[in-house]
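Give me a protein, keeping tokens residue-aligned:
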Amino acid sequence: MTATSLRRWAWIHKWSSLVCTVFMLLLCLTGLPLIFHHEIGHLLGTEIEAPAMAPDAPRASLDEVLAVAKARHPGKEGMFVSQEPDDDAIWYVTLADTPRSDSGLKQVAVDARSGEVLGEPSLDSGFIHVMYQLHVDLFAGLPGTLFLGAMGVLLLAAIVSGAVLYGPFMRKLAFGTVRREASPRTRWLDLHNLLGIVTLAWAFVVGLTGVINTLADPIIDLWRFDEVSEMTAPYQGLPPPERFASLQRSVDAALAIEPDMTVRFIAFPGTTFSSPHHYGVFLRGDAPLTSRLVKPVLVDARDATVTDSRELPWYVTGLLLSQPLHFGDYGGRPLQILWAVLDVATIVVLGSGLYLWLRRRRTAEDRDPLPAGAEVRQ
């Protein structure tokens, strides 16, 4: 690689790193508790658990579940009914003032077997909520989300340029070398480069999936414009139904065409994931991978008949796969611990890179063969 090429890569690495580092540190710090959000919820007493019951215990009707939840908040309308992929003992019923409104959101956790209310998770307060909002949009909505996506793109540029610069920098040093006898700045430089190359693949995957996740709203809007509008075309211009069919009958109709799948969530008519005329029943598989994917089934809200069902397009599938991969929550406790260790290592990489830039005065001892900024690898 020529000196001119090295200088270009060093310039890309330096400025992409400097612009995004503070925000990436924030994302790593907020992402760490999100990896263990269930465990933290248990410690704080905010995690809702269903009492132990036999696996083959009778299941409550979804109509009963909805009625129990709405009785807690009279006047509110159903938006979603959902279950966690790894827990089918609880239905989470989300209510709002209107199906298309985010105002007055309430969520009620109902035992899927007894139909009893277990609690009401807070949707707008608490430690995990604060961490999540900072991580997702900086409490700034879609503009904040897209801004973090742009910072993620700069992180990817910093990772790629750092990988390009690593080879020339380490030509005279063995892999993993930390020059303990050298100055503090040189020791931090060696540790920065070592941890940077070790976490390279993980940081790139998490950074890429993070960027994809920031595009969730535009991706869902594209799916609605492209697929959902085609699936609901026969209903264009028709007035919405005044009365809705049984929720349980609608779900049973969806399951009848996909008997090997289970319900992930149900979107009520008029919400983002349905139409004014349909329940959107989203089904999932039971394997580690398919449990994170969904298949939409549109059910006529007037008579509980299935009107359309099709596989999700590739761009929505990519979004759904990127979400669990980003937080490492699809492989149990061992993967959570691995994700946490790599997250902490990345925090050290980012912090040391910032330190190296702030302390960039060179001495004869720690002058390196690359242009200024080439060592700041993140």
